Amino acid sequence: MGSMLVAIDGPAGAGKSTVARAVAEALGFTYLDTGAMYRAAALARAGRAEVDLAQVEIAFAGDRVLLDGEDVSVAIRTPEASQAASRLATDPAVREALVAKQRALIAGGDWVAEGRDIGTVVAPDAEVKVWLTAAAEERARRREIPVAEIVERDERDAGRAAAPMVAAADAVEVDTTGLPVTAVVLRIVGLVPR
Ligand code: DC
Questions:
Q1: What is the number of structural domains in the chain?
Q2: pLDDT in tens, 55-65
Q3: Residue ranges lining ligand 1, Cβ < 6 Å
Q4: Of 30, 31, 32, 75, which residue is most buried, by most CB within 10 angstroms?
């Protein structure tokens, strides 16, 4: 069998991480959190704008995220890190460096990759593409942040010139508003040919 990729894209708080993790577990695929890579890159660049991201190692060890070997799993999840990642992700050179790392990772084996541009830029030939959404109010509640903050990130992620957050034309839209995770996972697993 060749390798298989399930691409899950969508806005912050749609449930991508929880759902993608569970889909990967159900299928026996490896999970890739590309948002964690933008977050780690933002940490690497904090106060050091000259850092060449191609030279920085971003690795995953189970649930841990390692930046040049240092465990940054907690540091990348602060509200400040979220906003810094969203800002850094507007930089085309940053995206180019991280997309190269992502393509190298998913080149072998079966993956569930989640982000904003997996089905459009990182892997336009993904076997399965999902656009995961939910109402802004529900996404803000899930993230325990004000609706205005979610809307601000949506606008920046969707409005940037470089690889704006957008559903691939051939993505299946799954609205998770009011749906239990198990239902969403079953729906997506059902899309995977096997
Ligand atoms: O999914 P997340 O919230 O961890 O992502 C953090 C930021 O990184 C988000 O605001 C947009 C950016 N991002 C991106 O531009 N492309 C991706 N594939 C993943 C994340």
A1: 1
A2: 999 999 999 99
A3: 12, 34-35, 38-39, 82, 85-86, 89, 115-117, 153, 157
A4: 32
